[in-house]
Automatic annotation (TrEMBL):
Belongs to the cytochrome P450 family. One of its GO terms (molecular function) is iron ion binding. Keywords: Heme, Iron, Metal-binding, Monooxygenase, Oxidoreductase. CDD domains: CYP107-like (cd11029). Gene3D superfamilies: Cytochrome P450. The keyword Iron applies. It comes from Kutzneria kofuensis. This is Cytochrome P450. PROSITE patterns: CYTOCHROME_P450. The lineage of its organism: Bacteria, Bacillati, Actinomycetota, Actinomycetes, Pseudonocardiales. It comes from the Bacteria.
Length: 414
């Protein structure tokens, strides 16, 4: 690692968590391929859009964190390895085998069939909010919406939604509580183990009593010798459960804040609701929930913009920096719902492009559209700089709480 590496601690500050985009701009301009040092591993951050696209499709940058070098343990520690040996951390052909089975869950027919259920969940959540004139939108709307949708899709019984949500939120909010680091790690480990045991038991129950849901389909793929082991079924279920709600929940929160702090754009969207699909893409570009793509490992020495990345180094593609690249987006730090925004990489790029993109877009369009329709005069209940965000060390960009006010009304839908 070069002596000019940036200490990782510089990216773990409260200031960075509140607004990382000035730091991203400096990196793009001065060090677009930036070495970063930390006690556990060396890494390199890639921040320009052209380089990001190239890196996300570079076969020399492996997603297999379980191969030689024990990279998964180096990066994440051993606690959740049993839950994370899935297609996210695999290269072709292994990735192709796992994704082929899972892709059936997100076939257009299955996703479209969920539309009435998504609308029903959105309205049910807002029915509880509308009469009061104030709400905490993360806990009362943004988090439960995608969690309920993905649980329905997977086949998690409604009676189990509450404990599953509890375990995932302990994992999501790691580092944000008043617990000591040791107590926080212990709480996360316990939540991971309980979730793993629950999912393993649910898989066993689906084998005995299958239904028209994704877990049953995965079990069937396992039992019909399609190359999916029972451990992979459990790990894949965890991936779909967590990825299927975490990023959507954080996106809904980030998008709401972006609109409320850009009143001209909020007014435009209210006046022209037909802009909603394009607005969702621009909001994702503007402040996405996954700032850095999941890590890649250099399997050989590679070079980007004259910077040598040694074999065995961790490479982080900074999606949110690339999505603000002025070489591709005019005035990139301005929210512009009429921008068009189709060239962002908020859903990834290459073979690891988000599998649930259609479902995520549907949830976002119905969620944001109905929220604006049913909560008139929606506004933040605190100053924007007083919002509590996930810690900067989190792999996600999102809010712990989103207090809002609006004009109280009846539970009747407009």
């Amino acid at each position: 690692m070069t002596e000019h590496a940036v200490p990782a601690a510089e990216f773990y500050t409260d200031e960075f968590a509140a607004d990382p985009y000035p730091a991203y701009a400096r990196l793009r301009e001065e060090r677009p391929v930036c070495p970063v040092s930390s006690p556990r591993f060396d890494s390199y951050l890639i921040t320009r859009l052209d380089d990001a696209r190239a890196a996300l499709t570079d076969p020399r940058l492996s997603k297999d964190l379980y191969g030689p070098g024990d990279h998964y343990v180096r990066i994440f520690g051993p606690n959740s390895a049993a839950l994370n040996k899935n297609m996210l951390n695999a290269d072709p052909p292994e990735h192709s085998r796992l994704r082929r089975v899972v892709s059936q869950a997100f076939a257009p027919r299955r996703v479209e069939a969920l539309r009435p259920r998504v609308a029903e969940i959105v309205d049910a959540l807002l029915d509880k909010i509308v009469p009061h004139g104030r709400a905490e939108l993360m806990g009362e709307f943004a988090i439960p919406l995608p969690m309920m949708v993905i649980c329905d899709l997977l086949g998690v019984p409604e009676t189990d939604h509450e404990p599953v949500l509890g375990w995932t939120q302990v994992i999501r909010t790691s580092g944000s509580s008043d617990r000591s680091p040791e107590a926080d790690r212990a709480a996360v480990q316990q939540a991971q183990l309980r979730l793993r045991d629950y999912l393993a038991d649910l898989v066993r129950r689906k084998r005995v009593n299958p239904a028209d849901d994704v877990i049953s389909a995965l079990v069937d793929a396992c039992d019909n010798d399609e190359g999916l082991s029972e451990a992979e079924v459990v790990a894949t279920t965890f991936l779909l459960l967590f990825a299927g709600h975490q990023t959507t929940a954080d996106f809904l929160g980030n998008a709401t804040v972006a609109l409320l702090t850009n009143p001209d754009q909020l007014k435009l969207l209210r006046a022209r609701p037909e802009l909603l699909p394009a607005a969702i893409e621009e909001l994702l570009r503007f402040d996405g929930p996954l700032p850095v793509a999941s890590p890649r490992i250099a399997t050989e020495d590679v070079e980007y913009r004259g910077v040598r990345i040694p074999r065995g180094s961790v490479v982080g593609v900074v999606i949110n920096a690339a999505n603000h690249d002025p070489a591709h987006f005019a005035d990139p730090d301005r929210l512009d719902l009429e921008r068009g925004g189709g060239s962002h990489i908020g859903f990834g790029h290459g073979v690891h492009h988000c599998l649930g993109v259609s479902l995520a877009r549907m949830e976002a369009r119905i969620g944001i559209g109905t929220l604006l329709d049913r909560l008139p005069e929606l506004r933040l209940a605190v100053a924007a700089d007083e919002l509590h965000r996930l810690p900067a060390a989190s792999p996600f960009r999102g809010l712990l709480e989103l207090p809002v006010r609006f004009t109280a009304g009846t539970t009747e839908r407009s």
